TrEMBL record:
InterPro entries: AKR2_Oxidoreductase (IPR053135), NAD(P)_OxRdtase_dom_sf (IPR036812), NADP_OxRdtase_dom (IPR023210). This is Aryl-alcohol dehydrogenase-like predicted oxidoreductase. Residues 40-292 form the NADP-dependent oxidoreductase domain. The lineage of its organism: Bacteria, Bacillati, Actinomycetota, Actinomycetes, Micrococcales. It comes from Agromyces flavus. PANTHER family: D-THREO-ALDOSE 1-DEHYDROGENASE, NADP-DEPENDENT OXIDOREDUCTASE DOMAIN-CONTAINING PROTEIN.
Amino acid sequence: MTDGTTPAPLGLGLAAVGRPAYITEGRDAALGGDRSVEAMRERAHLMLDAAWDRGIRFVDAARSYGLAEEFLGSWLAAHPERPADLTIESKWGYAYVGGWRMDADVHEHKEHTLAMFERQWPETLAALGGAPDLYLVHSLTPDSPALADGALLEVLRGLVASGVRVGVSTSGPAQAAALDAARTLPDSPFSAVQATWNLLEPSAGPALGRAHDAGWLVVVKEAVANGRLAPGGDAVGAASLAALAAAAGRPLDALAIGAARAQPWADVVLSGAVTPDQLESNLASIAPSEADRAAFARLAEDPADYWSARSERPWT
């Protein structure tokens, strides 16, 4: 865990390089037209190499990220000396159902049941070549059956006993409620969270602080809001943010990621970069000044509006 006085380290998230289509703005220009399995595997390995070379030691995947676990597993197998220095996080509870098509009607299927866990855990082990360090329930919401399924919770406690840290990722306007519910469960198996926090959607911050204070590992995802806070992004206020970034001699995404890394409860902030240049830009992040913080406070959107707009983003 960080001590709250130094920036949280970056991790690499594989959501955007594990499948042909995703909702990140500007992805077409970055990836080009070849979205074959071979091309995406090569891209994933390129990004993993770039992250390793820059000292990144936290990698995030999920069963629903297409072949992200398989791509990561083949990279780990090619570098057997590296896993000991890495923290590998993956997630279950969503299945990828897009059939490797850009135009699929449905890309993911969500199911937080014991049957889904019992299917996906062996798939994760096979894909990665071993157990991840962290295994999260993917996109927990307050109404998730995972919070009340006694048999599932007992199995998750067994996973904890085996040495795997169990946690949740959160999504939607009620992230804080879902996180608090998972944290306060009697004999909760959960001790890690991956949550969306960015300058447009900071509402989970207080709940993340409570989790951090309780000893949870806190991982931030979507710090650039699926590209809305990257150069060329469509966020309201992006122009004023870009001016702040220019004054600091940094790209816009570096400003957004720097704000996330400066949060006292953040232990890891994920980069969703799909090119080495994007990763370099993310790594250029800087802590915000007091003037920056005042400007940031005016950017927050209503959480319901933010998540509604996110749900309508095209898969490209």
